Amino acid sequence: MDRKDLLKWIRQNDSGVIEHFPPFDARTELDGIIRDRRHEIDEDAYLMFVSIRALLRKDGMASCESDLEAGQIMALLKP
Question: Are 26 and 50 in contact (CB under 8 A)?
Answer without folding.
Answer: yes
